[in-house]
Specification:
This protein is α/β, with parallel strands linked by helices. It has a single domain, classed as P-loop containing nucleotide triphosphate hydrolases (Rossmann fold, 3-Layer(aba) Sandwich), CATH 3.40.50.300. It is about 35% helix and about 25% strand. Helix 3 crosses helix 4. It is globular, with a radius of gyration of 18 Å. The two termini are about 35 Å apart. The structure holds adenosine-5'-triphosphate (ATP).
Length: about 240
């Protein structure tokens, strides 16, 4: 299932937070979404998930318009928002069962069991979410994003706050999920792009300044590291 974005824009008064961007994310590939703080990444992701209405332009997932078919779209995508908003008073299993029921899944307890194992939450599964460390909260966020086995994953800084061990576990999980899904992941970590992403888009002040495969971007700038390329394009 492809994600196709055409001339998408979001204006807040005079500010063009996202200014007419177009790109495509393809199945079986992981697209890295990069840009400096305030460039418009989260705003774009919120428009892709139907959480925010665009000022103009359109986003399409599996041939369906996000704006015209918001409920259908929500069944197809898994979304991990920035800062992992969660119900802190709920227990891990209780929360994941609640999310599974919201999606109308059958075999809720079996699926909850599966995702708990998949994201490495077995040790923490009986705790209240509010008691978990940041990294484990992030895992709960990831679990709720994949519980309904969506074909499209939109992950806003999924590895922020993880320790090095957790980082490699979660990256391996995302890589694995990306083998047969469409994944869009925003990040500030260039090693993550190297380790995970097939394609990359870079946004600066609401405008796309790069849109290609990671390999092609490196070919275009043969002597520069990804970090240097990023700096050059976003200054
Ligand atoms: N509700 C809002 N009202 C007004 N301006 C907003 C609103 N939401 C976002 N913005 C502005 O839009 C711009 C883009 O913000 P956005 O959160 O999309 O950036 P980002 O690329 O995700 O940044 P970061 O890397 O820091 O998370 C920023 O200048 C931000 O202040």
């Amino acid at each position: 299932m492809s994600v196709i974005v055409r001339n998408l824009a979001k204006h807040y008064g005079e500010q063009k937070a996202v200014n007419q961007i177009s790109f495509e994310a393809k199945p079986g590939r992981i697209l890295g979404f990069l840009g400096p703080n305030g460039a418009g990444k989260s705003t774009t992701m919120k428009m892709l998930t139907g959480y925010l209405q665009p000022t103009s332009g359109e986003a399409e997932i599996a041939g369906k318009s996000v704006q015209l078919a918001p409920l259908e779209i929500k069944k197809l995508i898994g979304y991990l928002p920035e800062n992992t908003p969660l119900y802190l008073e709920m227990y891990v299993r209780e929360f994941l069962s609640f999310v599974a029921e919201t999606y109308g899944l059958k075999n809720v307890s079996q699926r909850v069991e599966e995702v708990i194992k998949l994201v490495g939450l077995v040790q923490e599964q009986h705790k209240k979410i509010g008691m978990l460390s940041k990294g484990y909260k992030q895992r709960v966020g990831l679990a709720q994003a994949i519980i309904h086995q969506p074909q499209v994953l939109i992950l806003d800084e999924p590895t922020s706050g993880l320790d090095p061990n957790q980082l490699s576990d979660i990256r391996a999980l995302i890589k694995n999920l990306g083998s047969d899904r469409t994944v869009i992941i925003s990040t500030h970590i260039m090693q993550e792009v190297e380790a995970l992403c097939d394609d990359v888009i870079i946004i600066n002040k609401g405008v796309l300044v790069a849109n290609s495969s990671v390999a092609d971007l490196k070919k275009e700038h043969p002597t520069a590291s990804l970090e240097e390329i990023f700096k050059k394009l976003t200054r």
